[in-house]
Amino acid sequence: MPNDRHAGLDAHQAARWVGVPAPTAFRHLSDPAFVGRWALGCLGLAPTGTADVFEGQSLFDGSRARVRIVPHEGVGLIDYHVGQGDLLRPRIAMRVVAGAAIGGPADSCLVALSAWRAPDTPAETWSRTCTAHETEILLIKTQLETLAADGEA
Question: pTM for the whole thing?
């Protein structure tokens, strides 16, 4: 049964403060290898042979999903066009905002993961997507901060 707290929502956002500078977070969140470590719907991203399109496997049901990562560095925005086969839609976006720009520490940033529900998305699938994003933002935070602590950021 779907989680009722997501009922009626057509967009969802999960955000966390991350203890790395915004350029570091942006670089990693634009990198398919890094995205393939936290994106539960397309783990292990690998090139498809089509320019800028990568494919991974869903941790949920084992299905294959594709993603095109479209970074807009000047505004700290990354669009993720997702889907199966050749039909990719801009359904996910990541915003990276420098900490100092919004009153936080200079060596930190705010990372916000947003999703938009397609009109034909079943309630149970949408609820799973929202819950996954709430987990993914924690994975992003932890993985970025671990890379920084290990000197790999």
Answer: 0.91
